[in-house]
Amino acid sequence: MPGFEVLYQAAALCLTYPDDDFRVRLPLLREAAPQLRAFTDHAAVTPQGELQAHYVEVFDFKNRHSLYLSWWTDGDTRNRGMSLVRFKELYRAHGLEFTDEELPDFLPAVLEFASRTGDVGMLTEHRDALDQLRSRLTAFGTPYACVLDAVCATLPPASTGARR
């Protein structure tokens, strides 16, 4: 799926905690990835503290909006450990080392990986999870849903169901 590298990098930045650097990047994100304008326009006019509080409310309080892809397939089970190892092995196979600041299945990390390598295998493999997350973000009424809309629009349809 060539050609979506800039979108994936921009989406990765939009889905990370909105620190001061995020605000500085907003004009560049807006121009580089027009598919994300609904989100970047919202972020640009939302006070920093409010944007940060919303991020925490959406992503940090419950797993219903988990940004960790293996959570959607494995939940909090022993199987998840093996899934995390697969992510790390994939990164290493492409000459990248994961820093351990986040788990390797953190969606922004996976998007950045896809942006840097062009390998969308993990995004495609977790398409059903991305659709579920997108649906839940839409139902929650958060502007983050449009980021997932843009990413999902670049991937083939999901083929199987995951846990809900």
UniProtKB/TrEMBL annotation:
Entry annotated with the keyword Transcription regulation: no
Gene3D superfamilies assigned to the protein according to its UniProt record, in alphabetical order: TorD-like
Keywords carried by this UniProt record: Nitrate assimilation
Entry-linked SUPFAM superfamilies: TorD-like
UniProt-listed Pfam families: Nitrate_red_del
Highest taxon listed in the record's lineage: Bacteria
Transmembrane annotation, as ranges: none
NCBIfam families cross-referenced by the UniProt entry: narJ
Name this protein carries in UniProt: Nitrate reductase molybdenum cofactor assembly chaperone
